[in-house]
Amino acid sequence: MAAIEKSDHDIVHSEDIETHSPTNSTAVDETKAEHEGVREERTTPKAWLCIFFLVMTFGSPFWATPTTAAMSSQLLTKLGQVELSSWVIPCITTCATISILIFGANSDLFGRRYFLLAANLVTAVGYIVCARAHNTSMLIAGLSLNGFGSGMAGVALIAVPELIPNKYRHIGVVLADGFVYVMIVIGPVVGRYAIINSDSRWQYVYWGGFVFTMIAFIGLFIFYQPPKHPRGVPWKEAVRGLDWVGAILFTIGAILVLVGMVYTSYIPATDKRVIICLVVGFVLIIAFGLWERFSGVRFPLCPEEIFSSHKGREFGVPFCLTFIIVGFFYGTAVIYPTMLNAFYIDANTSISTQLLLTLPANLALPLGAMLLVAFGRKIGHWKITMIASTFSLVLFGCLLALMTPYNKVTMITFVTLSQLSYGWAAYLSVTYTQLGVPQTMLGLSGGLAGTARYAGGAVASACYSSAISNGIAERGAVLIPKAALAAGIPQSSMAAVSAAAGLGAAALEKIPGVTPQGAEAIGTAYKYAVAYGLRNAALASMAFGVVGIILACFCEDIGPKMNEKIETFLENDALAEKNKFH
User: Which UniProt keywords apply (predicted)?
Assistant: First the structure.
């Protein structure tokens, strides 16, 4: 138990001790023990209040993602510039990938408070721009600000767990995503209902996000006062030692790579724009890696020592595992809604049924996280559960390759089990990365882990989308004309039939010579082409999965690090003197 400073009322004068009876002496000892207990490390009520506002801060930018995704097709029709649809969600992840590494790493030098307050302000401005958008370009600008704020808010993912004992670190990581779970479930519902009207009610989705964000800002501004120098370095000295070159190389390189990957979703991969973005981007990323390794800059964004610690098993392996697990998760996240829209949702499907079909994936993920919270510490054996959850994630995700247009229950079961496994594996892998570095480099860990989450998702989404679209095009070129000719449709209409195959029976029946029976046959052929593309994506995810299982086997056991120690205390609260740096 840590020593305490004695105040005047703690001093027991010698003459008093001599006149006390043994009973009174025992009372004094109990009183002293009680005072010592007060100073014992614990999470105070003010710390819990700050945790609540930190969770709000981390969750507030995310509100734009599920709501916008749910109403994007109708919203872009209202705003115009539908050709920009491929950028609506990727603009968020691209901006977040950049900002979370830079601000997460530098929060070790300048403290968490100002970055988190700035995150709320940037996010709030983003919501205003989105709500006032009168075209798609303006909407994308607002969402980009939202993504930038989301990356900055990623500092909360480390700020929450450091306020509670290390033995509950996995709970802290899950807790930081608390409001994100709520938004995953209700966001699609709110988005779909907000856009079904012909008026501008969709704007209230973003105004609601603005109000939520400002509440988080006010709460943090009033109550959250963490150490200003978590690494013990004066700010002027930190500014002189900042990794300016590394930040520029990473920012430009990552933007070019991610933009190039978005391009591949709607233009050929051989297009010069794709090639230039990817080649130049990867060259800059390689240059960034070499700079971090050999420059000797005082405060690098990616210090070599944390990656090489324990031959890479302490942080390097969990970092790569986080990237892989998120990448695999995006396979299911892309496959499942594509499956629903192609096979089970059409113009006659009610809104309630559509929303019901989103629940298996949306509820399974937080359920898996809750299982980690409830049973992670009771089960222990952290390395074994890391391997088991990764294996389960990969197994059920790869089983989606068995998809046909008619085995809905089986596929929903596999999706649910895969998402359930992800809820455990993802948060445990982040716990590994946080406990794999010294407390003075926790921001670096959070920035790198956050980059792995966002970048892994962006890379995987591009890979899976390409696998699906290429598979549909390949198999559709065979199945659709075959079905059309069998239905008696003339060869001259093949181009129009192929273009309208995925648009539904109503679009097909407008083509001369296409009967309702012919439209049904073509629709069935198109479904099998989609199933083939989705199978390709599921098989592609196996590459991520196998590597992930191997990495999980090389992780260390974090059990000895899951102790009673609290790493950080608020400077405006009890126990502030326990902070190593202030």
Answer: Membrane, Transmembrane, Transmembrane helix, Transport
* Per-residue pLDDT tens digits of the chain, which is 582 residues long: 333 333 333 333 333 333 344 444 444 444 444 444 445 788 899 999 999 999 999 999 999 988 998 888 788 888 888 878 888 888 888 899 889 999 999 999 999 999 999 999 999 999 999 999 999 999 999 999 999 999 999 999 999 999 999 999 999 999 998 898 888 888 888 888 888 877 788 999 999 999 999 999 999 999 999 999 888 899 999 999 999 999 999 999 999 998 998 888 778 878 899 999 999 999 999 999 999 999 989 999 999 889 888 989 999 999 999 988 988 888 888 888 888 888 888 778 887 888 788 888 888 999 999 999 999 999 989 999 999 999 999 999 999 999 888 888 999 999 999 999 999 999 999 999 999 999 899 999 999 988 888 877 777 777 787 788 888 888 888 888 888 888 888 887 888 888 888 777 788 888 887 888 888 888 888 899 999 999 988 988 888 889 999 999 999 999 999 999 999 999 998 888 888 887
Contacts of 82 (CB under 8 A, 6+ apart): 76, 136
Handedness of CA 481, 487, 491, 495 (dihedral sign): negative
Q: Are 566 and 165 in contact (CB under 8 A)?
A: yes
Amino acid at 446: G
Tell me how many degrees the CA angle 263-266-267 measures, rounded to the nearest 5.
Answer: 70
Q: pTM of whole model > 0.90?
A: no
Nearest residue to 570 via CA among 112, 173, 56, 121: 112
Please report which residue ranges of 111-229 form alpha helices under DSSP H. Answer: 113-131, 136-153, 156-159, 169-176, 178-195, 203-223
In angstroms, the CA 158 to CA 112 distance is 9
Q: How far apart are the first and last CA of the chain?
A: 21
Contacts 24+ apart (CB under 8 A), 259-262: 259/94, 261/90, 261/458, 261/459, 261/461, 261/462, 262/86, 262/87, 262/90, 262/94, 262/462
Residue-level length of the chain:
582
Question: Do 366 and 59 form a contact (C-beta atoms < 8 A)?
Answer: no
Contacts of 397 (CB under 8 A, 6+ apart): 328, 331, 332, 414, 418, 538, 541, 545
Tokens 């649910």 correspond to 416
The contacts of residue 487 (CB under 8 Å, 6+ apart) are 514, 515, 517, 518, 521, 522
Q: How is residue 135 annotated by DSSP? A: S
Cα 112 from Cα 118, distance rounded (Å): 10
Q: How far is CA 228 from the centre of its chain?
A: 27
